[in-house]
Structure formats: structure tokens, C-alpha cells
Specification:
- Residues 1-29 form the signal peptide.
- Residues 41-373 form the Leucine-binding protein domain.
- Pfam families: Peripla_BP_6.
- The protein is α/β, with parallel strands linked by helices and 417 residues long.
- It has helices spanning 9-29, 55-75, 94-106, 118-130, 159-172, 186-201, 220-234, 252-259, 280-283, 286-295, 309-323, 329-346, 354-366, and strands at residues 40-48, 81-89, 111-113, 134-137, 152-154, 177-183, 205-206, 210-212, 242-247, 269-272, 296-302, 369-370, 373-374, 388-396, 399-409, 414-416.
- The chain folds into two domains: 9-158 and 305-374, Rossmann fold (3-Layer(aba) Sandwich), CATH 3.40.50.2300; 160-304 and 388-416, 3-Layer(aba) Sandwich (Rossmann fold), CATH 3.40.50.2300.
- The strands form three sheets. Strands 6, 7, 8, 9, 10, 11, 14, 15 and 16 form a nine-stranded mixed β-sheet that branches.
- The two termini are 16 Å apart.
Length: 417
């Protein structure tokens, strides 16, 4: 992500780190001479999909949380506060996410990083509203969850900004008719709607599209319905002006495998949303890789500031070493979310309730510049500023890898390739 004030970004980061150091030194100075009376152990929870759909993000998120806690403890040495992790597997299941939150809150956990999906976040919101616990999602984007005054923060922007970026890329490619396909859940539905609106606002035509169920495992019917709409579009436009927009998670590998059987679907361009960008689940499937390369499939993802690569790349490398997979910006957002949580706790010497913690968290985020850029939040608790990268599968040596192919700067509306 690029911060809104792009001038002297490294000075902003240096200032933030200096402020963090002052905070930690001041906290350490408040300890008594014995170093025992003010000692606290603070648990930071994590609810990620470790073995279910979108586990490609869940595994790197877990590694990011653990590394951030290690770094926070190293920097907070002498402050009297020690951070520990409690990570649960949700399998991307809303019911499992709710059960994990209830269990963690019962154990006294005040802050939980995650969940990954908007469907999970929507499922836990009523409980969190009635039983305060601070939730910080790294990757939920549904605009329906952008609500001021609750105990839910999101370290990414709401779906409306990503929709504008995706529409800009497709329209800029010459696409004039877009056929959306989306997973039936809050996040992907929101991305589909946001992209539909933004593309139509540019003068493009959007077909009714095809929705598939969140538990779908066979995509024969989905692909047949999509094929019908693509053929209808091709009856009035050349293939160069027809595109497919796909919003989903790791199951997209199965969608591509099914779509590969229809040569008409391979004749138009495809575009993707953030739930699949940089996913190892797709690159692990040769048939899906082949189809993705054929149709282009640039997929939007919360972007990183390339001018600050020296700041975030070492963290990304450490996450990859621990997780075995390269992290995306969402995983790096987990790292930042934990470091901000540590700052919020360090500044409250005698414990804090969830309402006060939320206020301290937002305050700490406003001055924190980390791996994903400036962490300032808006009134709804979502990332205030966000730019986007587009990733596509391209040849890399003897295999294929996700490669950055374009970028979109939200503030200026500039598309770069």
C-alpha cells in the first residue's frame, strides 16, 4: 500500500519507529526496581483457515502473527509485558470462527487477529457486539461490515476501492462487457457488486453473471451457465471486448479446471479478486495454471509500497521461511496488526477494558507505518488508504509463479503496468 502522503515515506517510517521506541522505553521506566509487580502476560489470538479453503493465507497469517509477537517481545523487553499467541483453525467456516471467538473470550483474550473472510466476520459480529472483544481482520472487505463504533477493525480497505481498481484495469484493457462469477458469501458478493458498479460507471455493460454456493465442489453447472452468457456477449462484441470477473477463494482452481474444457471461455480475458491473488492453491494445479496463463487473470490485491521494499521484504522473507509459502499483503497486514496491538497494550500499564483498548489501538494505528504502509483507520475502523497491485501467473524458470503485472493508485486514479 502507498500512503496518501507519498513524500519522504522513509522519514515517516523512521519517525514512527522512533515513537515506538520512546513508548517502550517509557513503559520500561515505569516498572518497579524488582521488575515483578507490573508483569503481565497478554494473549493475542489468531483465527485463521489453516486446513480449509484459503489455507494458503491462513498458514502465512499464523507465521506472521508468531513472528510479530517474537519481535514485539524483543522490543518490549523490560516493559513488564510479555505477549503470547493463541491460534485456532477455522477452516474458513463461520461456525468454527464463532466457536473460536467464544472460547478465546472465555479464556480472557481481549484481541483477536482474523478472521480471513467476511462471511466469518459477519457470523461473529453479533456475539462481539454483545460480548466485547477486539477483532482485527486482515482480509475482510465486505462493505456491509464497514460500521463505525463497533469492536471490529480491518487492516484492509472495504470492497468499494478494490472494485474501482478492478474496473479500471478491465476497462483499460478494452473490455466493454463483463460477466461476473462469484462465490456466495459476504466478501465475494461485496467485491462482485463493487466491481459491477464501478465498471458500469465507466460506461461498460455487466451481464447478470453466475453465483455459486460456498460449499460447491462440482462446477459443471456453473461453467455451463457462464458459457451461455459469454456466448451471448460474443454475439454482439469481439472476444477482445468481453471479460470474465471471478471472485472466490482456493476453489477457483477447480473452476479453472472445469472451464478449460470449453474453448470459448478460453477465448476471452479473465480477471480475479483478492481471495485468489498469489494463492499457492492455484499454482499447485497444472491444469488451472495453464488456463490462468491463457486467459491472463490479473487479480487485485491490497498493494505494497514498492519504494519501501527494504522495509517489508525482510519480514516477508521471514514469514516465507517459517510458513513454506510466500506471503501476500494480507499476511503482512497480520504482522502489522499484532505490532499495533503490542503498542496499544504497552501504553496501558495497569490493564485495560476492551473499549479503552479499541481507542488505544486506533490511536496507535494512526501513527504506525509498518510492512503494509501507514496503518491509519477511517471512522468505520477500516484501512483509510489503499492502493492495489494486480498479480497474474506467468512463466518463471521451469515453472510458473505469481507476478505483479499492474498497479492502481487510488488517490490519483492512476493505472500503471
Amino acid at each position: 500500500m502507498k500512503i496518501m502522503d507519498t513524500s519522504r515515506p522513509l522519514l515517516r517510517r523512521a519517525g514512527a519507529l522512533a515513537a515506538m521506541a520512546v513508548t517502550l522505553m517509557a513503559a520500561g521506566a515505569c516498572d518497579d526496581s524488582t521488575g515483578t509487580s507490573n508483569r503481565r502476560e497478554v494473549t493475542i489470538g489468531g483465527i485463521f483457515s489453516l486446513t480449509g479453503n484459503w489455507s494458503s493465507l491462513g498458514v502465512t497469517s499464523k507465521a506472521a502473527l508468531e513472528l510479530a509477537i517474537e519481535d514485539a517481545n524483543a522490543q518490549a523487553a523490560g516493559s513488564g509485558v510479555t505477549f503470547v499467541a493463541d491460534v485456532r483453525d477455522t477452516k474458513l467456516d463461520p461456525a468454527a470462527a464463532l466457536a473460536a471467538v467464544q472460547s478465546m473470550r472465555g479464556d480472557g483474550v481481549q484481541i483477536i487477529i482474523g478472521p480471513q473472510s467476511s462471511a466469518e466476520l459477519a457470523a461473529i459480529k453479533p456475539y462481539v457486539d454483545a460480548n466485547p472483544v477486539l477483532i482485527v481482520s486482515q482480509s475482510s472487505t465486505a462493505g456491509s461490515l464497514a460500521i463505525a463504533g463497533d469492536h471490529i477493525f480491518r487492516f484492509t480497505a472495504a470492497d468499494s476501492l478494490e472494485g474501482v481498481a478492478s474496473a479500471a484495469l478491465a476497462y483499460g484493457d478494452g473490455i466493454r462487457t463483463l460477466i461476473p462469477v462469484w462465490r456466495a458469501d459476504a466478501g465475494n458478493q461485496g467485491l462482485h457488486v463493487a466491481t459491477r458498479r464501478a465498471f458500469a460507471a465507466r460506461g461498460g455493460t455487466v451481464s447478470s453473471g453466475v453465483e455459486y454456493g460456498a460449499t460447491t465442489t462440482s462446477f459443471t453447472a456453473t461453467i455451463a451457465a457462464l458459457g451461455t452468457q459469454v456466448r451471448a456477449a460474443l454475439a454482439t462484441r469481439p472476444a477482445s471486448e468481453v471479460g470474465v470477473y471471478l471472485a472466490g477463494f482456493d476453489e477457483i482452481a477447480d473452476v479453472f479446471t472445469a472451464a478449460a474444457a470449453d474453448p470459448v471461455l478460453a477465448s476471452v480475458r479473465w480477471y480475479g479478486a483478492d481471495g485468489i491473488a498469489q494463492s499457492s492453491a492455484l499454482t499447485a494445479r497444472p491444469a488451472a495454471v495453464s488456463f490462468a496463463e491463457t486467459v491472463g487473470f490479473p487479480s487485485a490485491l491490497f498493494g505494497l509500497d514498492l519504494t519501501a521494499r527494504t522495509s517489508w521484504e525482510p519480514i516477508a522473507q521471514r514469514i516465507q521461511q517459517r510458513a513454506g509459502n510466500a506471503p501476500d499483503a494480507f499476511a503482512l497486514a497480520v504482522y502489522d496488526a499484532v505490532r499495533v496491538a503490542a503498542l496499544a497494550y504497552i501504553t496501558s500499564r495497569d490493564g485495560v477494558d476492551v473499549d479503552s483498548l479499541a481507542a488505544r489501538y486506533a490511536q496507535a494505528a494512526s501513527s504506525y507505518h509498518g510492512a503494509t504502509g501507514w496503518a491509519a483507520l477511517n471512522a468505520a475502523g477500516d484501512r483509510r488508504y489503499a492502493d492495489f497491485d494486480f498479480w497474474a501467473i506467468r512463466p518463471s524458470g521451469t515453472s510458473h509463479a505469481w507476478t505483479r503485472v499492474a498497479g492502481y493508485e487510488t488517490r490519483s486514479g492512476t493505472l500503471t503496468r
